[in-house]
Every structure is written in structure tokens, then in C-alpha cells.
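U., I forgot to send this yesterday:
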Amino acid sequence: MRLAAQRQSTTGTPSERASVGDVRKVYRGRDIEVSFDLDLCVHIGECLRGHHGVFNLERRPWVLPDEADVDAVAEIVERCPSGALLYRRLDGGASEEHQGTKVTPIRNGPLLVTGNVEVRREDGTIESLPRATLCRCGFSKHKPFCDNQHLAIDFQAPGLPFKIHLSPVRPRLKEPISKSEDPRRLS
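Result:
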């Protein structure tokens, strides 16, 4: 199922008013709805490590929110650093919240931002996310968001180390698969 992103919404929590990209795929479960925006994904693969029943590249749709406890699904989604994965609780449970906004430079990589992240685009639209990875190498084709171009140019900068696990979307540390090769674009 596809859901057109809302533009310039100012009500609700950041995950409820996320407006990144033209289309965000939504996977609705009984008690939780998970959405995914491939354009924001930096292929860390936390979703694939989280729960194979919920996140599985071998099937369509690749996300089945009802395959795990709603709190477990929310916790896995919150591990996604880029904001490509978001959730909306349908059971009345708490939404993702952060105290303040935190910016963490990742060694040789993007800025990891958590909190109420609002990005104003050149066309005036405002995008709100609870998490984002923002480009700091200057070469992203999806600015202000990271698209892993820092790997192609061997960007070097201080910051905290960030553990990246090999997965089907990141078969080599320095070479995540391209968006056109990503099987999630199909479901």
C-alpha cells in the first residue's frame, strides 16, 4: 500500500506528521502501522536484524507488523537511524518521543539527528521526522539527507564510531546496494 506524504503538517507527533518524499509505503497491522521511505534509507539494516518475522526481504510485502508484539516492532523501528522506518501506534500506545534534539557526528559519515527534526525544503515544504541522517560530506544527491555518497568519496571526519552489520542491503561495509537493486522498492 502506498500513502502520499503530507506536506507542512504541524499537528501530531513527528512520526505521525512525517512528510519526507512523495511516497511512503505503509504496512498496516492490527495494532501498529509501519511506514518505509526508501529514499531516506542508508542501508544500516537494523530492521533486518530485528525480527525476521516482521522484516523479511524474501517475501512480499517485506513488512508484516502483526508478526511480533507491538512494543517489539516499535523498538526495532526506532533503531532505524535515518527515519526511513516510522511507526504509528493504533492501539493507543505511546508514540516515539525524544527529549530535545540531539546531533551526533558519525565518524567518516553523516550527522545522526534525533528529536523533532524539521527540514525546510527550497520549495517551502517542511519535513518532520523523529530521526534523520543528514549529509555532512557535501556530495549527497538527496540533500540534506545522507545517501551514502561519503563512502564513494572516502569522506574523512571525526565522530563517534557507528557499528554497521553486514546484511542483504549492505553486503560490504563500504558498498551498500543501490536503491535500484533494493528489493524493498517492489513491496
